[in-house]
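Re: the 320-residue chain
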Amino acid sequence: MRLFWIRLTTMILAMALDWVFGEPPERLHPTVWMGKYILKAEKQALERNGKKTRRVLGAVIAISTILLFTVPTYFLEMILVTLTGNTIYIIFASVALKTTFAARCMHQYNKNLCSAIQKGRLEDARQQMTLLVRRDPWRLDQKQMISASVETIAEGIVDGVISPLFYFSLLGLPGAVAYRAVNTLDSMIGYKDPTYIDLGFFSAKLDTAANYIPARITSLFLVVSALILGEDAMKSLQILRRDHSKTESLNAGWSMSAMAGALGLELEKKGYYKLGDSDEELSINHVSRALRMHITSILLFLIFTALPLIYLTSKLTGGF
């Protein structure tokens, strides 16, 4: 049971670190280091032409990124476990694990967005949107920004929190780091535009596979969150079943459609998808309600998925 208590303590402490301190400085953030490596490799790869060549180079970039950060994590973990006590390892692991997920910043960015909208500072709100979405915020009106905010909260539960903690529960710290590498690759080169469609092909497929189970787990916890918080759980389940496949991504539609149904909203990214029904007019109050569902679904995941997975893997492995 030693492994169970170590991983459980590590995860709880990592969640506390995230909520109290938020993100570390960029110069100390492993995800930023991943991004710098990917950017450098990407620039060299884009100098090469040919579909097959770029797909091969894209796979090399993805695999090398994952190995570059996961392998040292594994060996450092083994060294600390062997040469130090539980306390030193837990401190290291909790700090490292915290860098693989981000819950507090999702709340802070969206609260800043709502504050700017409330004060009528739409240009400030659009500037804040650049931290949340890929789409051009200067083409969005107020309601479209609110919709994008709610969409980002729903989708961010999966890749921002649930997925890294899912892989930590299964595979320990190297699993969380490997997931963060996969997701960072997708966010940087996993596009379908002419520049990246071949180079990012492998990374995009990896990210889809990695998020497949967490996305579906998250959607169910969002329905339960709606029930707990007094939102429309039945409508959440209805819209989840009806609209989850309407997004181009195999995964994104699950959590977004569950959120749309729970809040009685139609969430739209023009030219790409419409999820839910317009039972309520979009307002900044929906962002606050979405954030409550965000944190509730995470807590449900920790109790009903992460905890059992940590227990199961600790029993099966018997140690590190």
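The chain has a mean pLDDT of 95.
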